[in-house]
């Protein structure tokens, strides 16, 4: 709810269901935003929800019911499905795609079909967070992040264009230095790709 003054008269306004008034704007601008963008801690609760299928409120971004890589964008009660980029999951608290280990409702091991092996002391000393090749794609690899509970959870990363993952050095490298990945870019010039994407 907000108040608008016009010619000495106060009028009460209300944002559409799922949106909140943005008081950071100039008084001349009346704007409603998604709640994650505005600090509403000192405000009254939102109006009662007007839910529709997949939309807890008429407007907003909402996690998919069963797939943590998907989310719904609701506009006037109509749900539009979106997917996060590969290796990411939708975080309903920040309303963006995030690492799956950062999303409470997502199991990163199931999502990525990879369980981090127990690293050796030497791996931890040499590389910090251990990295492992992704089967079938020379650019991709998993990094196993240490979580607050002491376990390690996988994240899917990809080397910059023109490079591939080198399991010997646990880093991105030129394709000619990685056995089995020399032809990864086929007819594309890996060096030219790096130049195009700002890498030398």
UniProtKB/TrEMBL annotation:
Entry annotated with the keyword Signal: yes
Domain Chitin-binding type-2 residues, every copy: 1-42, 52-108, 113-183
Gene3D superfamilies named in the record: Chitin binding domain (2.170.140.10)
GO molecular function, one term: chitin binding
Domain of life of the organism encoding this protein: Eukaryota
Keyword Glycoprotein appears in the UniProt entry: yes
PROSITE patterns: CHIT_BIND_II
UniProt keyword annotations, A-Z: Chitin-binding, Disulfide bond, Glycoprotein, Repeat, Signal
GO CC, one annotated term: extracellular region
Name used for this protein in its record: Protein obstructor-E
Gene: obst-E_6
């Amino acid at each position: 709810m907000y108040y608008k003054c016009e010619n000495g008269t106060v009028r009460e306004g209300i944002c559409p269901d799922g949106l909140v008034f943005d008081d950071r704007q100039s008084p001349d601008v009346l704007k409603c935003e998604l709640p994650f963008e505005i600090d509403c801690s000192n405000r009254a609760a939102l109006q009662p929800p007007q839910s529709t299928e997949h939309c807890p409120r008429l407007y907003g971004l909402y996690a998919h019911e069963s797939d943590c890589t998907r989310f719904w964008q609701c506009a006037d009660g109509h749900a539009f499905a979106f997917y996060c980029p590969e290796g990411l999951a939708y975080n309903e608290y920040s309303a963006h795609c995030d690492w799956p280990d950062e999303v409470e409702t997502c199991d990163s091991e199931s999502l990525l079909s990879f369980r981090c092996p127990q690293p050796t002391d030497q791996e931890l000393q040499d590389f910090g967070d251990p990295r492992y090749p992704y089967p079938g794609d020379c650019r991709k690899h998993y990094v196993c992040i240490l979580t607050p509970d002491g376990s390690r959870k996988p994240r899917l990363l990809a080397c910059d264009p023109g490079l591939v993952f080198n399991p010997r050095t646990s880093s991105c490298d030129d394709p000619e230095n990685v056995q089995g990945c020399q032809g990864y870019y086929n007819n594309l010039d890996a060096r030219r790709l790096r130049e195009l994407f700002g890498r030398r």
